[in-house]
Amino acid sequence: MIKTNRLYGGRKFKNNLFIGLSTSAAVFGIMWLLLILFTLVTEGFGGINLAVFTESTPAPGETGGLANAIVGSLIMIVLAVIIGTPIGILAGTYLAEYGRHTKLAIVVRNLNDILLSAPSIVIGLFVYETLVLTMGHFSAIAGAFALAVIVIPVVVRTSENMLLLIPNALREAASALGAPTSHVIHQVTWKAAQAGIITGVLLAIARISGETAPLLFTALNNQWFSTKLDAPMASIPAAIFQMAMSPYEDWHRLAWSGALIVTAAVLLLSILARMIGTHRR
Amino acid sequence: MTSITDTEAPGMNLAENYALKVRGAKQLEGADRRFFGLTLASAITVLLIFAGVFIALFKGAWPALHEFGFAFFVTQKWNPVTEKFGILAPIYGTLVTSALAMAFAVPIGIGVAIFLTEICPRALRRSIGIAIELLAGIPSIIYGIWGLFVFAPFFQKNIQPFLIDILHPIPFIGFLFEGPPYGIGIFTASLILAIMILPLISSITRDVFDTVPPMLKEAGYGLGCTTWEVIWNVVLPYTRNGVVGGAMLALGRALGETMAVTFVIGNAHKIDPSIFHPGTTISAAIANEFAEAVGELYMSSLLAAGFFLFIITFVVLAGAQWMLASLDKAAGGSKK
In this complex, is the C-beta atom of A270 within 8 Å of any C-beta atom belonging to chain B? Predict the structure, then answer.
């Protein structure tokens, strides 16, 4: 009797111990993340004013803002989405609708997943070697292209996943009516997977909004307001990098404001993507 | 592909009607083929991008690889003035920071996942899960500036002197904790990396844990197992490959991470046994020095470092995929 009690007690103790450890791991882990968000809001919010959105990078000691960086980021993100989304959706369509089990599809799928998590700095080097060196100078086009290379794998992956969720019976029904495959895709599967594909694009935008490494060697940075596509262009992440690494106190404040803007944008996009994604399922 | 020219097929009338209504069968078939070609071309574009990254980096790396040979990977010397380069120090920094970050983040990440799937009250499960997924999407530069402005000064003032006092006198391992409290350095970079990959590990591991069929767990509970015994004897063996795959995915991320590390590692091109000293990683070296790299050999050495980084992350990520795919197969098999 005593022996079983001891065994039982031991198991109970072990159970409580590990449950306690897991719970404290969760509390500990989440605490750090909340701490970061908290500092971000307290440090960043104080610096946010109208000038942040209307003026460009100041000389150290003067007032200014991030207007050039915000506009630069927007321009390059829009271009990257225009370049990357069609390729991503079409490639995802190939994988889900035409290829599925072909050798080509298996190779593309696996390499795409590796590109998806490949270090973004490597993508930056790739675009530097191919575009920047041939053009002879840094440019917004090169920056947008680097971001597009990051958009494509994200969109391919989500598009394929979403299309695979569509029941085959829908495709078969459309084919039985005599619709050619391309019509089946345009009018049935794409429509059914629409919400999921849009979610993928939004997630891709969220991902590239904060990318810094690939922009450093492609779009570089720009102290002045510029919308020229074949010239270096500022972006919020690159501006944060430059300002945070500088010794100037007021640039640090601006870097925090930039960080808050980027994080807010990324979080809003992710939440929006999640809402669209779950709304129609 | 659906054939619409097959005249013997039943339902021909319908097909003909459909085809005539739209444009006429011939045209339709052409459009069908063009669309197929378009999707195929896009899929091949993905391949071309991958091959392009490989080839472009190798081409850029060639002058350095040719000049220094294998010694490039095993020498510490990094001297832009005499143009002698070796990337042993960045490789060392990359491996040490990633290993330390994994050592911190994997146990905690798995703990978070266990908490979310087995312990957390149901009402909170979804919201905490979503919060962690959102945090996994925060750009790494945010972790970087937080590390530089908030964590490093705090660590330098309040924790590091204390750690050095305690750990440095220990024989045999004391030298690992030597030196003045800089704040920044290998150890700080590892901690920031750990905080950054934590949500990633937690959310992947949680998804993996969710693949365990409830019946298996219920059988365990039915035998009178405690929660911990079910986790240890049912959940973890079932998901082993997935957990390892998820951790490797996070490792791939940690190895190539640039911004979270560059701010806090100190950019010193030397191997120093003390983890409190500044160091550098492959990506931090590239980010810090690319803009000022003059001369073909300097630039090419940085590209060669990037090429090497691409190769090691490729190996790690391919391994991760293989592990996760074998879990999918197991999960698919058990449903039958």
Answer: yes
Residues in chain A closer than 8 A to B133 (CB atoms): 270
- The interface predicted TM-score of the complex, written ipTM, equals 0.91
* First-last CA distance in chain A: 55
B106 to chain A, closest Cα gap in Å: 11
The verdict on a CB contact (< 8 Å) between A36 and B146 is yes
Which helix (H) or strand (E) element contains residue B304?
helix B296-335
A27-41, A70-84, A254-268, range with the lowest pLDDT: A27-41
Q: Do B149 and A244 touch (CB under 8 A)?
A: yes
Q: Please give the average per-residue pLDDT across A54-72, as a whole number.
A: 87
Q: With 70 as the cut, is the pLDDT of residue A158 above it? A: yes
The class of domain B69-332 in CATH terms is: mainly alpha
Q: Evaluate the CA torsion angle B121, B247, B284, A242 in order and state its sign.
A: negative
Interface mutation vs chain B, best among A114, A215, A240, A278, most B CBs within 10 Å: A114
Q: What is d(CA A242, CA A60) in angstroms, rounded to the nearest whole number?
A: 12
- Tens of pLDDT, residues A95-154: 999 988 899 999 999 999 999 999 999 999 999 999 999 998 899 999 999 999 999 999
For residue B308, the chain A residue with the least C-alpha distance is A122
List all residues 6 or more positions away from A125 whose beta carbon is below 8 Å from its beta carbon.
A217, B56, B57, B60, B286, B303, B306
What would the DSSP string read from start to end of B249-263?
HHHHHHHH--HHHHH
Cross-chain residue pair B42–A245, CB shorter than 8 Å: no
* Confidence at residue B324, expressed as pLDDT on a 0 to 100 scale: 86
User: DSSP secondary structure string, B72-141?
Assistant: HHH---EETTTTEE--HHHHHHHHHHHHHHHHHHHHHHHHHHHIIIIIS-HHHHHHHHHHHHHHHTS-HH
Beta carbon pairs, A and B, within 8 Å:
281
Name the minimum distance, in Å, from the CA of B163 to any CA of chain A.
20
Q: What predicted TM-score, i.e. pTM, was given to this entire model?
A: 0.89
| CB half-sphere exposure, B122, CA atoms < 13 A | 0
> What pLDDT does residue B64 have?
92
| Residue B123, min C-alpha distance to chain A (Å) | 16
Q: Which residues pair with B79 in a beta bridge?
A: B84
Cβ proximity of B220 and B292 under 8 Å: no
B128 contacts on A by Cβ (under 8 Å): 26, 30
Whole-number Cα distances in Å, B155 to B43, B173, B197, B296:
48, 21, 20, 40
User: What is d(CA B67, CA B114) in angstroms, rounded to the nearest whole number?
Assistant: 51
Nearest-10 Cα torsion for B43, B45, B50, B52:
160
- What would the DSSP string read from start to end of A31-74? HHHHHHHHHHHHHHHTT-SHHHHHS-PPPTTS---SHHHHHHHH
pLDDT > 50? residue B120:
yes
Enumerate the residues of chain B whose CB falls inside 8 A of the CB of residue A160: none
* Interchain contact, B228 vs A216, CB within 8 Å: no
